[in-house]
Amino acid sequence: MRLEFKPDFQEAVQRWAAFWKGEGLDRPLLAVTLPKEGVTPVAKPGYLSGFDGDYEEVIEQVLAWAESHEFLAEAIPYYQVEFGPDHFSALLGADMRLHPDSGDTSWCVPFVEDWDSAEIRFRPDSEWWKRTVEFIHLLRARCEGKLLIAAPTLVAGLDSLAAIRGVENLLMDLIAVPEKIQVALQDVCKAYEQIMQAFAQELDYQRYGSITRHGMYSPGAINVPQCDFSCMISPAMFQEFEVPCLSLEASVLDCAEYHLDGPGAIKHLEAVCVVPGISVIQWQPGAGEAQTQDWTHLYRRIDALGSGQILGGNRDRILTLASELRSPRLFFTTGSLRREEMGDLLLALERTRRLRS
Q1: Of the CATH numbers 3.40.630.30, 3.20.20.210, 3.40.50.300, 1.10.760.10, which one belongs to the domain with range 9-356?
Q2: Which of 5, 13, 179, 306 sees the fewest Cβ atoms within 10 Å?
Q3: How large is the average pLDDT for residues 73-90?
Q4: pTM of whole model > 0.90?
Q5: Per-residue pLDDT, 103
């Protein structure tokens, strides 16, 4: 299968397959997206584009963006269909609305008043599923064979319960009625399997594979398990309530990268790294002071636990991290590389891998 805007797509597919096996690569993977020479670059549509239902305008911009850029090494052109961080919860019956103070994020309206009467299931007859499918069909009609279409990040587990019940209510419920939360999480897991199957069919994973919002590709099914709610609970509670959900999600996927968000979530790192099927950690420092800190010590800790990582930076930082970290699953992204530096960086990464082995 070919992609018009990624002529070496098949080679990239083979390298990604080797990446997930953890063997057979001569260097870490690298994603570099650069404007084509002599062409005025068009920006990729922003987050939540299409929320208002104006899909055709978004598709025109997606195609213009892909046509005006080149996707080097393991970078693959894609566009993600997502109407907000809680897109998954909307497929369970919640409504989504644009944030009142900002047009670049949305929030879910909680609908669970009582766990005994709550019906938590995938709702293929819901407005948000119908809109999702409509957008996908229009994108495929115009973009098929040119670029990939990514499914929403399926934010399930405790995060989805927080979205449909409210954060404060869920925190109280975990103490007051833990057995009801376990039942609700089982319903979420069942819905997760059904929704994954639905996206696999709508986006034809069997033919195209799939890709995450971070540009990580799999020849099979991939998504990004996460639990931002975890910063508010203890390791024991995380192990009791969230880890079974993560295990189920990873078992449904062929590949999984975990989104570790903020310093408050680090206490759960070891528990995440032993979940079978989660083989890559994507660290996000969060807001405020954490964004300016040096997190090299955390990268080393993740590496020592045997997990791969997604890391960004300029040429020098990439080479430094590639020389320090031992994992066979390292994926580097950069937006600060000049075209003339590309070949030298790839050769340097190969030398680093040979020296480590």
Answers
A1: 3.20.20.210
A2: 179
A3: 97
A4: yes
A5: 63
Q: Are 252 and 278 in contact (CB under 8 A)?
A: no
CA 184, CA 121: separation in Å to the nearest integer? Answer: 10
Given pLDDT bands bounded at 50, 70 and 90, which one contains residue 357?
A: low
Inter-axis angle of helices 167-176 and 178-202, nearest 10: 130
pLDDT of residue 305: 98
Can you say whether residue 96 is alpha, beta or left, with left for phi > 0 and alpha for psi between -120 and 50 degrees?
Answer: beta
Place of tokens 């709508």: 202
Q: b or e along 131-169 (b: 16 or more beta carbons within 10 Å of the residue's beta carbon)?
A: bbeebbebbeeebeebbbbbbbbbbbbbbbbbbbbbeeb
Q: Spell out the residues 6+ positions from residue 236 whose beta carbon is closer than 8 angstroms to its own.
A: none
User: How far, in Å, are 56, 175, 187, 229, 237 from residue 171 at the CA level?
Assistant: 41, 7, 19, 9, 11
Q: What is the pLDDT of residue 119?
A: 96
- d(C-alpha 27, C-alpha 350), whole Å: 5
